[in-house]
Write a structure and sequence with these properties.
215 residues, Jelly Rolls, 7-stranded antiparallel β-sheet, 3-stranded antiparallel β-sheet
Length: 215
């Protein structure tokens, strides 16, 4: 199935899932990248809690430190098996190897506006290209009534040095045994890089999600 480029407005805002998730470039330098993201309230793709389509999977970054800086609304998070909330003006730093995910608090009935910053690492990892391609592909498949191909999703994650984490309490058990990141890295390499990329030919970047297309 061909992917479909989402709406991109003149101010550079990308509208995924028919606007349920909007992302825009904030800033970047040699050491960091910041993405602005707005999750629409009361929308099945972005406003129904952790089960929302746009909720990132529970994951770790191998090399990058991630910061959530809430601008508006309430951000719910799961970090290292513990749930919590951040309100506007609050932020949290998440170092490498620390499992995490986040979502818009459905109890507030308001949009979540958050700046997400990543720092460090030997390659860009979570950057603007990753945001556009990961969410662009997922949005394209979802809006067509299809599920994402798991080999393609792992291809994206492997390229960004992001590893999926099993649900609590298994993540804690694997971590205590020293198996959490080795198992995740092996899955990325085998199913994402070797099978997904080399055998099936799934890319890490689609021309449909290139910034230059709209310039």
């Amino acid at each position: 199935m061909a992917v479909v480029r989402p709406k991109v407005t003149s101010d550079g805002t990308w509208h995924f899932f028919d606007g349920a998730l909007k992302t825009y470039y904030v800033s970047s330098d040699a050491e960091s990248f910041t993405s602005g993201q707005i999750f629409r309230a009361k929308d099945p793709h972005s406003g129904v809690g952790r089960k929302s389509t746009a909720t990132p999977p529970y994951h770790i970054h191998l090399f990058q430190t991630e910061t959530f800086d809430v601008k508006e609304g309430v951000l719910c998070y799961l970090i290292d098996g513990k749930e919590g909330k951040l309100k506007a003006g609050q932020k949290v730093n998440i170092p490498p190897y620390r499992p995490h995910t986040f979502w818009n608090d459905p109890e507030t009935g308001t949009d979540l506006h958050v700046h997400i910053t990543v720092r460090g690492g030997p390659n860009p990892g979570f950057d603007e290209d990753f945001v556009h391609n990961f969410y662009g592909y997922l949005s394209s498949r979802t809006m067509a009534g299809k599920g994402p191909n798991p080999f393609q999703m792992l291809r994206f994650l492997d390229d960004a040095d992001v590893i999926l984490v099993p649900p609590v309490p298994f993540s804690g058990l694997f971590r205590s045994l020293g198996l959490l990141w080795p198992m995740g890295r092996a899955i990325n390499i085998l199913f994402g890089r070797i099978l997904g990329g080399w055998l099936f030919g799934f890319p890490t970047r689609y021309k449909e999600f290139d910034d230059e297309v709209s310039k």
